[in-house]
Design a protein that fits this description.
CATH class: Alpha Beta
Order of helices and strands: EEEHEHEHEEHEHHEEEEEEE
Strand order of the largest sheet: 6-7-8-9-11-10
Strand content: 25-35%
Helix content: 10-25%
Structural class: alpha/beta
Distance between the termini: 24 Å
Radius of gyration: 16 Å
CATH architecture: 4-Layer Sandwich
Shape: globular
CATH topology: Purple Acid Phosphatase, chain A, domain 2
Number of strands: 15
Number of domains: 1
Number of helices: 6
């Protein structure tokens, strides 16, 4: 299984709007072109939220237009900036409530909505954790990749940790009960992060536009370039991954 992880595109309802110095549409287009030129032969695209900066049908149509050039399945979760219903209109497998699953090449993708209305941080309510657990109970025989927007781990930046996933330990402890959960992919951080919780590998990925500087007390932008994460899960379960930037 070869995965293209894209995140935090922050698209507007036009192609020219800029955020933190980046024309976000153009930047995403260039990152997708880089992925195509890489010849990795991806099986699926994972978009882990904040597809839009200011949600509108047009912003999601622009995402659909760009992502269609890859001609492979696309899975997405909403970020704190997104409208989940509007995003679902262009990416069918996008959770508008709780979570949903998609099986591709015998691998299960568990897609989780961690939004809290009108807030930057994320939260998964107790009843939603129970629902997630019920999904995992039904599919113990399949390897699982979990996708969420908010970071379920500490990032090393005080301001970011305040707006991550509020109940990260409860969430990870729930997942850790299942040996078939291989990996968690998340967004929100606009930087490269690798971590591990028991047997679960955990990855954050650079934004397709502007980047945040790691290890900061307050918001600081980094001069690192936009990019994507390549992930390959071998039949043995071994995970290979690398970051590729413009």
């Amino acid at each position: 299984m070869k995965i293209l992880h894209l995140t935090d595109c922050h698209l507007y309802d036009n192609k020219i709007e800029r955020k933190a110095g980046y024309a976000t549409y153009d930047s995403l287009q260039r990152v997708i072109n880089l992925a195509i030129e890489s010849k990795f032969n991806f099986d699926v695209v994972i978009a882990s939220g904040d597809i839009s900066q200011i949600p509108s049908p047009t912003s999601y149509k622009l995402f659909e237009h760009l992502i269609s050039s890859l001609d492979i399945p696309v899975l997405a979760v909403p970020g704190n900036h997104d409208d989940a219903q509007q995003l679902q209109s262009v990416v069918e497998k996008c959770p508008t409530d709780k979570a949903c699953i998609k099986i591709i090449n015998d691998m299960l993708f568990l897609l989780i909505n961690s939004q809290v209305k009108n807030k930057e941080h994320g939260q998964i309510e107790k009843e939603d954790l129970l629902y997630i657990e019920s999904l995992l109970e039904k599919h113990k025989e399949k390897p699982v990749v979990v996708v969420i927007h908010h970071p379920p781990v500490l990032t090393g930046s005080n301001w970011m940790d305040k707006i991550g996933l509020n109940n990260k330990e409860e969430f990870l402890n729930t997942l850790a009960h299942y040996p078939n959960v291989k990996m968690v992919l998340f967004g929100h951080v606009h930087q490269e992060i690798e971590s591990q919780f028991q047997h679960i590998r955990i990855f954050g990925t650079p934004s397709s536009c502007y980047q945040f500087k790691p290890g900061t007390e307050n918001v600081e932008y980094d001069d690192k370039k936009p990019g994507f994460r390549y992930i390959e899960i071998e039949q043995t379960g071994k995970i290979k991954t690398s970051i590729h930037r413009l």
